[in-house]
Amino acid sequence: MPLYVAAGWLGHILHMDVFTLYHGLSLFNIVLLLVGVYLFASVYFRHRAAPVVLLLSLLFAWGTGIIWSNSTSFRALPSVAAYPSMAAFGLTLILWYLAIRFLEARRGRQIIGWFFLAWGVCSLTLLIHVLTGAVALGGMLLLALTRRDAGWRNRILLVMVIPCALLAVESWPYYSTFEVLAHGSGQGSAMGEGFARFQRLVHANAFYRPWSILSSLGVALLAYPLALKYLRERRYLFAVGGLLGLSAIYFLNLFVSIPLGHRALLFAVSFGQILIAAWLIEVLFFGRSCEAFSTAEFSSLVNETSVRRRRLALILAGACLLAGFAFAARQEWVSAREGRQLVDTYRHLTRKMREGAIVLTPPETGWPLPTFGGKVTALYHPNPLVESEKKRLQDTRRFFSPDSTVREREQIIMRYSPKYLLLNLSRYKMAKIYENAYCGKSMVFGNYLFCEIAK
Hints:
2 domains; single chain
């Protein structure tokens, strides 16, 4: 992640607190998103109101919204703005703008210039966030296949950007993008196992609980009938293809394991919000902002939209704005309160901890620790860059299992050489036993036990 390596280097030189750096990254990513929305919407819709309409659609065309990486809902923005996925999404929109300009270029020198710009942005997007980068590549391929009035030479050269970018990112010294993309991809499950997986995901995964997803998406579900409408009219095929293709991956993941397949829903929503923005432009501004027309043809088109449809669109847009602000205000109040408590707790627990010290702790308890300078034996979320990730998670779970033996726990301590032990007292009733058996100096703060492991 070159952007975040640079941000960390800058923060280290300026002795910035991690949360100050986080706020700076949030501001940078939001600006990047705004630039991406402006550039892409301006060339895709060919309507001067398009950037504003698309931005409002991305932020407010939701129900209650989803607070997760790759979510663009206004409610999620305070929590995810600094994430690499947000920077990559802004770059994705810029990449699609470059792809459209590339397809429209007629002169050889222009084509070469757009090619290298697209190649650079494509490579950077992949390095910053591989999952978003993969969607960016897919979107660029869709543009090459569906954009009207583009020559075959331009289409073929645009597709060639993809392998060039994939080869370029392999020169990044910290990890292999191919390995990250391939990590976790297993064999497809048999049909019987597929139905068992379906039942498990519907009950255990928030992305597949029907009522939760329907209420979270809300107005975004309008994109599906719009997709059928525009598919029949053969318009906006880029957005239609992205919405339907990613939705297919999301539903297929119910039966066959696809790495991060549930996250395809969030990208599908973004494509759907492009369709919603297109519909709003047509209804509200009486203009057919279709990429099928040239600028001259577009300026002569007038859509005879009924007043009733326009009023409906205004009511829908107003309701989305009000609901979005209401949900965001509530989320911000809850997050601010809980966030301050969490930060204060971990700052107090780690104030005497050595920088880079290894902490043995259940993943559910220790996930904030790396922010405060510590290292954990196992991560809460899967990370393909961590060697022996599954083994680490198994050992950590085994250490805190009531069924493990003293010998097993001693072997785990010898294997990872942890300096400290951290437990949530409300979750682990055996915390006192661990403290007596393994701890030297110890401290209890709130519901947490933090102690130095006696060697």
